[in-house]
Amino acid sequence: MAADRKTVVYSETSHTNGSFITDRPGLESVRSRITEDIRTTVADAGAEGVVVAMSGGIDSTVTAALAVEALGSDRVLGLGLPCHKAEHTGVSEARTIAEGLGIEFEEIQLRPLLEAFKETVGTELESHSAGDERDRPHERNHAIGNVTARLRMVCAYYAANRQQRLVLGTANRSEWLLGYFTKYGDGAADTYPIGDLYKTEVRALAKRVGVPRRIVSKEPTAGFWADQTDADELGAPYDVLDPLLQRLVDEDEPIGDAADALDIDRETARSIAWLCAETQHKRATPPTPGVAGRGDGSD
Fold first, then answer.
1. How is 224-278 classified by DSSP, letter by letter?
2. Cα–Cα dist 295/299, whole Å
3. Which helix (H) or strand (E) holds 104?
4. Residue pLDDT, tens place only, 30-72
5. Cβ-based neighbour number of residue 12 at 10 Å
6. Dihedral class, residue 102 (left if φ above 0, else alpha if ψ from -120 to 50, else beta)
7. Three-state SS across 126-174?
8. Distances 286 to 3, 233, 259, 283 between C-alpha atoms, Å
């Protein structure tokens, strides 16, 4: 069961804090819009409820909380899918959040699946002509991190298929624009409730929906390996990324002008802009040759 992938556009919402949605009326408007969209999406798909993979971080916590507002706690399933020791604390936090929301929560340890993958598929497909993998640990970390994300989505969709539910993605706009997600992993959900909100706005909304302070202030990480942080992976913290992305993407401002206005090093700004452009393929539906002018049927 799947719904057409989409996000919600908040074009008529008032803004403060620059043009970010952080004021109370704006956040309440967004909150209402998101919960209504979740209800409509689930109803249109004829689904019984939703599945949310919960990491103990702010994005999945906000997504789960809004799903409960929209559907009720009995129609939301939370999944804790740890794969590394560093994630155990987060999953324990996710269980606590789930209990507070009154939703069903299942924890599944993915480490045995990942080890089986590396021993079977991984060993068979490693290139023996590309040099010693010890010289490319970061490259291998990314590949295995992508496998982990896809294993998580396999579990989420298995639960969704078995229980007639939809999978709610937890990506925010900052991550989406920078391609900071895995194709067919966390980039494969049915709908993304917070997908139009920058991280700055997610933090503000989290406070409105009652997310604990310890979750809001936690260092953002994808949890692919120990000590990984979003800031290290993306080259800057969200406090720098969000205003720059908003100027470059939403306002179509030249890179140099945006960097100067925000007092950001131009090389850093160009690197972030390149990342946004280079990952466009991850945000697009895979193309077909367009034989005989045939479309995808979306019309």
1. SSTT--HHHHHSS-HHHHHHHHIIIIIS---HHHHHHHHT--HHHHHHHHHHHHH
2. 8
3. strand 104-107
4. 999 999 999 999 999 999 999 999 999 999 999 999 999 999 9
5. 7
6. left
7. CCCCCCCHHHCHHHHHHHHHHHHHHHHHHHHHHHHHHHCEEEECCCCHH
8. 17, 25, 32, 9
Go through 249-268 and write b for each residue having 16 or more CB atoms within 10 A of its CB, e for each that does not.
eeeebebeebbeeeebeeee
Name residue 107's beta-bridge partners: 80
What whole-number distance in Å separates Cα of residue 180 and Cα of residue 187? 9
What are 63-107's pLDDT values in tens digits?
999 999 999 999 999 999 998 877 888 899 999 999 999 999 999
Residues 6+ positions from 204 with CB-CB distance below 8 Å: 17, 20, 21, 22, 27
**Cβ-based neighbours of 3, under 8 Å, separated by 6 or more:** 41, 44, 45, 47, 166, 190, 191
Region of 265 (left: φ > 0; alpha: ψ -120 to 50; beta: rest) is beta
Q: Distance between CA atoms of 227 and 29, rounded to whole angstroms? A: 36
Comparing CA positions, the residue from 230, 243, 250, 251 lying closest to residue 269 is 243
The first and second tokens of residue 177, run together, are 């624009």
Longest dimension (CA), the chain: 59
Which two structure tokens, joined as six digits, stand for 289?
A: 């040759």
Please count the residues of the chain: 299
CA distance 288 to 297: 12
